[in-house]
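As a next step, we paired sequence with structure tokens, yielding the entry below.
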Amino acid sequence: MDARKTVVVTGFEPFGEHKVNASWVAVQELEKLGLGRDINLFVKEIPVEYKAVQTLLPSLWKQHQPQLMVHVGVSGMATTVTLEQCGHNHGYTRPDNSAFCPSSQCCIDKGPDCLLSAIDMELVCKRVNSSSLGVTVSVSEDAGRYLCDYTYYVSLYQGERRCAFVHVPPLEKPYSAEDLGRALKAILREMLKILEEQAEHKDNCKHEH
């Protein structure tokens, strides 16, 4: 039996003005670096399409059963690497790459309005920013009500919130592909540490009662 942990990381295909999607480039850089010998890393490029997300994400969770799934997207407004704390269920009015938009304008029918990641993004941010990474990390609570937010919500719903979303700026604005790959590696290692700490805390609480 493989004792290593499994992490799945996704990036998006090109869309709109993003002829090269920095998110997928950053994920490919992360794949080159790896997350260490104790982690099985799987990467996947996701279409910028609502229907594709609805079918792809449940199959990724089922197939890999990861300890953590992290989705990476690009934000033209971002100048830092941004950790998203929550995904939103409603407000999807922007057509995707195939000119489709969900008629319900929501991710999951009758799902909660907002789902929070099990990971404390402020803590991840603090730890990464106090290292000598050279890439600034910030936290947001609005992933933008497009495919990024949509993907995050669907994944949080599927994966019992063991999930994160990271927005990266476009390439060279200000970070290179290599910088973004290094940043993702540092961020994911911290996220895994935090999930481990939470699991240990739960075990300790159980033994105390």
Notes: The chain has one domain: 5-208. The CA atoms of residues 198 and 204 lie 10 Å apart.
